[in-house]
Give the backbone structure.
Amino acid sequence: MMNVWLKILIGVILLVAPLALYAYDFVTPGPVIQVWRLQLNPLASLWTVIQGSIPPLIALIGLFVVWLELDEWRIEKELRAEEEKEKKRGRKKKK
């Protein structure tokens, strides 16, 4: 039981910490964290990640559409073949 609460606590911390950085960055100008030559600006970094994730997301949507259409084409082909078999069976039964 303690394990579950510990995991929930870690999850909440991992959820709140970045949101707090974004909020702090929103109300204060300049970099939020400065270590040696590294300056961290969370909102600018978030915007960069969002911009970088849009092209792969569009590519995945395109891939999904192509996959759906190929699957639909395959199913129609199988359905036509099944209908042909039914027609041939119907002709044999009539004779």
Q: What stands out?
A: The beta strands are 33-35, 38-40. Residues 1-40 form one domain. The first strand starts at residue 33 and ends at 35. The chain has two domains: 1-40, 41-95.
